[in-house]
């Protein structure tokens, strides 16, 4: 199979995995099998393939990610059982009584937390804002997924943003300023194309504003658990950053501590807030169940898939193929991050794999401004990540709403294409005026 272009092989495997899920094959099993097939077709031996798969399964990062998503699910279930979800709904409705605005605000608020699989936390909130599901399972799942990631290109807590700012040398302030367009583009396109007016159906009823004297209390009570999670996350993350030299941790251990300790600490504080309000741990009863285990297997499967694509050198081989074909640098600037986003399903994946090549194609003193190239690369990498069946948020959102990945992708394909159009126009404007 060495004569088959790697890009085509990757896309074919993606298509088979997605097709298998439409036939009710467990996504984790389909993804793992697809990864094994790709690795074998790329010339890896069975021993090498199984070694890469088992190494990923028992990697501390994988185990912590699976545990984190399970804890997030338990926390969201406890919010629902303990009445905190209803309180949050009331708070969002008080701040944005128009239902569509509330459906945007809820996942955007959760999106300030760059937690893996964080869409599972906002999914029940979006669900509660349209209890009769007038927008349908695919519409609500798409809204949750789409708006959850509106901040990814310009919010300084995201690992991908931090990595990009460091690799480009722009710094966080300039990196955020360059990508300012992303949030309004996501919100506006989502408003008109994801949560578009319903035909032949009534919109979810607008929530009544609470009395003036109670508005602040409603908002404070509703946001308290999630504010505790976010507040603890920020404080612990800053503390770890300040204490990093004294901790003297090695690279991998330091990365794990920085990535997981803040969010686990935030969830712990949020759980204490829920327990205090309920007077017991009863809301957490039954939080870990068969559905939770099924999701854990899904996450493990897609991580194995990603590891086997990496073992088969999917991204680097794709880049070499583009270069050998004499592809124009601007095309490579778009295609490489897009493919890397598809292959990895995470922001720091497309940044780490594609940006070194993109930055090499566009030197600081080159004819085409590096700033515009980075904006273009970020937009296409984000699009690839959003389309990837390896993206944990897409998986957990589809699981929550009981819909399929194909239905979700079909729903946000048009706004995503429009978003790329906006990004291309914006990058062209930057190139003209910088």
Encode the helix/strand succession as letters: HHHHHHHHHHHHHHHHHHHH
Low-confidence stretches: none
- Structural class from helices and strands? mainly alpha
| Mean of residue pLDDT values | 83
What is the oligomeric state here? single chain
Residues in helices, as a percent range? over 70%
Tertiary shape:
globular
Number of strands: 0
What is the strand content?
A: under 5%
Rg: 22 Å
Q: How many angstroms does the end-to-end distance come to?
A: 45 Å
Largest sheet: number of strands, sense, barrel closure? none
Helical stretch count?
20
What attributes does this structure have?
single chain, 434 residues, mainly alpha, 20 helices, globular
Give structural notes.
This protein has a domain at 61-157 and 202-291. It has 20 helices and no strands. The chain has helices at 6-22, 27-41, 46-57, 60-81, 84-95, 99-110, 119-129, 136-148, 159-168, 171-178, 182-194, 212-247, 251-278, 290-311, 314-324, 329-344, 347-361, 370-387, 392-401, 405-433. Helix 5 (84-95) packs across helix 6 (99-110), helix 7 packs across helix 8 and helix 18 (370-387) packs antiparallel against helix 20 (405-433). The mean pLDDT is 83.
Which helices and strands appear, and what pairs or packs with what?
Layout: H1 6-22, H2 27-41, H3 46-57, H4 60-81, H5 84-95, H6 99-110, H7 119-129, H8 136-148, H9 159-168, H10 171-178, H11 182-194, H12 212-247, H13 251-278, H14 290-311, H15 314-324, H16 329-344, H17 347-361, H18 370-387, H19 392-401, H20 405-433
Helix pairs in contact: 1-2, 2-3, 2-14, 3-14, 4-7, 4-13, 4-14, 5-6, 5-7, 5-12, 6-7, 6-8, 7-8, 7-19, 8-11, 8-19, 8-20, 9-10, 9-17, 11-20, 12-13, 14-19, 15-16, 16-17, 16-18, 17-18, 18-20
